[in-house]
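Chapter review: from sequence to fold.
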Amino acid sequence: MTNQNRLATYFHVHLVSDSTGETLNAMARAVCARFDEVLPIEHIYALVRSQRQLDRALRDIEESPGIVIHTIVDSTLRSALEEGCRRMDMPCMAALDPLVSAVSRYLGASTTTRVGAHLRLDNDYFNRMDALNYAIGHDDGQGGQDLDRADVVLVGVSRTSKTPTSIYLAHRGVRAANVPLVRGSEPPEKLFTLRNALVVGLTVSPDRLLSIRRNRLLSLNEDRESTYIDTDAVREEIIQARRLFERHGWPVIDVTRRSVEETAAAVMNLLSQGHGQVEVLG
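The C-alpha cell string follows.
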C-alpha cells in the first residue's frame, strides 16, 4: 500500500498540567508533527492542582485510552497520576523531566517545586504585556509618528503577514510596529529617521500574494475587480517595495514559504545580530 493510500492514524493524547498547559501543548504538537499520517486527538487538563481535579482527568483518560503526558510538579499528585496510568496500562510521561534533570546536573542546583513557577509575574511578564499593547496600538500604521519606542518596525505591502508577525514578536517581549505600503500614499516620515528601531522589509512572491488577496476578498464576500488583485499592479507594488527597502538599506525577509513563527525567528536573529545589516532571507 502506497503512502497516498494510507489512512491517517488517530490516537488520544492526554495533556495534564498544573499550570496553563501551553508548554505541554506546544511540546506535544511538535512531537506529533514528526510523524506522517498521524492525527492526535488532544485532551487538555489545565490547572490540575487537587486530587478531585486529577480524579476527573483519570476518568476521562480511562474512557479514551491513549498516551498521557504531564508536567505535574506536586509529588503526591504526580504519584497518583502515574499510579492511575499504571493500573490502566497506559504510557505516562513527564515531559520536562529529562531536560530539567540534565540542566540540574549541569548547574549542580536543585529544582523548585513551586507550581507554575515559570509564569510568575516578573519583569519578563510585564515586558511581554507592554510589547503586546504596543503591537496592537501600532498595527497597520496606527500610532502615527510614535515609532521611537519600537524595537522593530515591519514594513510591507498588504497581506505580507505584518500583523500576525508583530503579535507573535510581542509574545516574545519585542515591541513591534508595522507600517503598510499603500499605492498612492507615502509612509510616515518618522519611519526614515528612526535611530534605535530595526526596520525590516517583508516581501512575497506575486503569485503567492495574489492568492492570499483573492482568498481574503472571498472571505469578505467581495468579488469586485480592483488593482488589489490585478496581476500587473501587484507585481508593481512588490517591485516598488523592494526598491524602497534597497534605497534605505533595510534587511528584507521573503515570507513566501515562511510561517509566521519562522518569520518572527528571522526577525529575532536580525535583532540579535545588531542593526544595519542587510540580509535577504529566502
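Two observations follow directly from the output. The domain at 6-118 is CATH 3.40.50.2300 (Rossmann fold). The CA atoms of residues 144 and 262 lie 28 Å apart.
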